[in-house]
UniProtKB/TrEMBL annotation:
Domain spans labelled Flavodoxin-like: 5-183
Gene3D superfamilies xref list: 3.40.50.360
Spans annotated as Disordered: 147-170, 194-218
Organism superkingdom: Bacteria
Gene Ontology CC terms: membrane
GO molecular function, one term: FMN binding
Protein name: Multimeric flavodoxin WrbA
Amino acid sequence: MQTIVAIAYHTGYGHTGRLAEAVAKGASEVPGTTVEQHAVDQLTEDDWQALDRADAIIFGCPTYMSSASAAFATFKEATSKVWADNMRWRDKIAAGFTNSGNMSGDKLNTLVQIALLASQHGMVWVGLDRYGGWNTSAGAPSDTNRLGSWLGAMSQSNNDEGPDTAPIGSDLETAAALGRRVARFTKLHRAGDTYLSGTEDGSRDAVLSGSGTGECAG
Ligand SMILES: Cc1cc2nc3c(=O)[nH]c(=O)nc-3n(C[C@H](O)[C@H](O)[C@H](O)COP(=O)(O)O)c2cc1C
């Protein structure tokens, strides 16, 4: 079964773009996953259609002034057309990531904004399943999930470094872990759907409402 994981992201200066690449790399490690990246400040009609076709959308943007960047906010509002069309992103898998200059930098607010966007669309949110790192005397910045985030992947990029060196490898690996997890859950979600669609009563909705048997015809 081939599944599509789309990454819809904004980057102002390239740092969050590195994170998007890492998320893509992680997702692509799950066999049978097609990964697409879409820069939300350059979306064409084809990009919007690709997002409609995706089984999962992972949203990402930098944190600017404690919030999602303005370019991402513009995209966020533009998705209201999708929502108004019978919530056509309903039931897709969703996740999020953000990057900022400070260790905290109030970037949890950005992930909350992204998670609320996904919730308004009726999407199914997947967070990060990694223990926090860099939180003991033996810990180090090289620990994955060094910023201790579970709603989504966070990274920090020094303000005096370009995207060639920031964010650091542990943040990129954290982002890759999120990509892998989303790709795995997307497969499980689609496989369950496909299984139930093949039940003897032939109706996923019948099974889920309790009137079907749930016995697979095959
Ligand atoms: C307009 C603006 C606002 C920013 N606000 C914050 C902030 O609230 N918190 C923070 O930690 N860093 C903040 N930063 C730093 C950026 O988050 C940081 O440079 C990040 O790496 C930029 O990612 P990008 O290269 O993908 O645009 C801000 C940067 C800019 C340009």
